[in-house]
Every structure is written in C-alpha cells, then in structure tokens.
C-alpha cells in the first residue's frame, strides 16, 4: 500500500512540475523572440490593453488587422500599409509609411495595434484631429467619392446600415457627380461638436 501511495505521489509531482514550468515558454508563443524583459513588458501591457475594449471592439480590431495584414504573417509592415492604402485608392509615400510605423515601439502585431489605438483614445490625439485625418484618407483633390465612403461606412468598424448612411448624407452637400467637399464636411463635423459643447456649457 505504501509503495502505491509513493508511486501516486511521484506521478503527481511529475504532473505538477511541468504545469509550474509551462508559463515560462508562453511569451515565445506570440511568434516574436525578444529578451525576457521585453516579453514580460509586452505581456503586461497586453493584458491592460485588452481590458480597455469590449469583446465586440476587439473582434472588430482583429477583423481590421486581418484586412491590413496582406501577407498574413501576423505583423503589419510597410508593404502591408502600402497595400492597404492602395486598396483605398490612395497613394502613400515612403516617408508617410515610415512615420506611421515609427509610432509603434516595435513590430506591429495585433497587441501592438491595440496599444496604438488605446494610446490615441487616452488623449494621445485630439478628437478633431482624428476626424480630420479619417476623412483625409478618403480625400482626392479636395473631394470625397460618396460611394466609396458609403462602402467603407457599411463594411468596416461599427457598420452603418443603408438607412444610417442615407440619414448622414442628408446632412452633407453632395454635388451632382456624387462628390463631397472634404473641407466643408470636416468643418461641419468639427464645428457641430464645438457648438454642442457650447450649448451644454450655457
């Protein structure tokens, strides 16, 4: 009897030992090899970043990340960014792409992308700047193709319904060729936000 108990205890000890060691290789599972200090830092910031977003938001960011990761290697690089801009019908110069990649502290994997979004949301960027930059990505010689914008609004992020886009378009000036004046749209959106703030203060 005592021998059986010893064997069972030894088995349990062997089973428990790998379980204790298992967390150590976990940082390498992310596909990136860094120093242990960097891995712990990434892991620590990752858990905080994921808690800043709802599951739905994380799923939407994941979908966007997968769309941007054209070569499907799990990292958004310069060629991925270029291909993303190309798919939006906008040419991006090397300097612009380098500046975007330079905003991240390392290779842009999914966790790093979430970290960039979290930094922006926590005051790293002005709301008006976000609006201006968002619409400037659709800008072509001062005009935005309303059909291209409609497609984007109904396809990515918090998807708009056709009725919601129509309702928004009722507030915009669209010329007979289907183009929206970029500056007028930006002015309308940023000015209305300021008026709302002024109305609340009064």
TrEMBL record:
User: Which InterPro entries does the protein's record reference?
Assistant: EF-hand-dom_pair (IPR011992), EF_Hand_1_Ca_BS (IPR018247), EF_hand_dom (IPR002048), Myosin_RLC (IPR050403)
Q: May I ask which residue range the UniProt record assigns to the signal sequence?
A: none
Give the start-end ranges of region Disordered: 1-47
- Matches recorded under SMART domains: EFh
Which GO terms of the molecular function aspect are on file?
calcium ion binding
One of the GO biological process terms: post-embryonic development
- Provide the EF-hand domain boundaries: 56-91, 160-195
Residue stretches of biased makeup (Low complexity): 20-29
Q: Name one Pfam family in it.
A: EF-hand_6
Q: Which keywords are on file for this protein?
A: Calcium, Metal-binding, Repeat
Matches recorded under SUPFAM superfamilies: EF-hand
UniProt name for this protein: EF-hand domain-containing protein
Species whose genome carries this gene: Euphydryas editha
């Amino acid at each position: 009897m005592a021998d059986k108990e010893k064997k069972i205890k030894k088995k349990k000890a062997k089973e428990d030992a790998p379980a204790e060691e298992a967390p150590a290789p976990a940082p390498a599972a992310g596909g990136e090899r860094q120093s242990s200090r960097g891995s712990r830092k990434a892991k620590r910031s990752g858990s905080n970043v994921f808690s800043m977003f709802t599951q739905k938001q994380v799923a939407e960011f994941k979908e966007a990340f997968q769309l941007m990761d054209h070569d499907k290697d799990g990292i958004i690089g310069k060629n991925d960014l270029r291909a993303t801009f190309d798919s939006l019908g906008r040419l991006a110069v090397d300097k612009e792409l380098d500046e975007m990649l330079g905003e991240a502290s390392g290779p842009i994997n999914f966790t790093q992308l979430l970290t960039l979004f979290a930094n922006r949301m926590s005051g790293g960027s002005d709301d008006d700047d976000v609006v201006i930059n968002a619409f400037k990505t659709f800008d072509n010689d001062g005009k935005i193709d309303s059909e291209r914008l409609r497609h984007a609004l109904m396809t990515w992020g918090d998807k708009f319904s056709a009725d919601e886009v129509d309702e928004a378009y009722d507030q915009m000036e669209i010329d007979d060729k289907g183009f929206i004046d970029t500056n007028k749209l930006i002015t309308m959106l940023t000015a209305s936000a300021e008026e709302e703030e002024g109305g609340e203060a009064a």
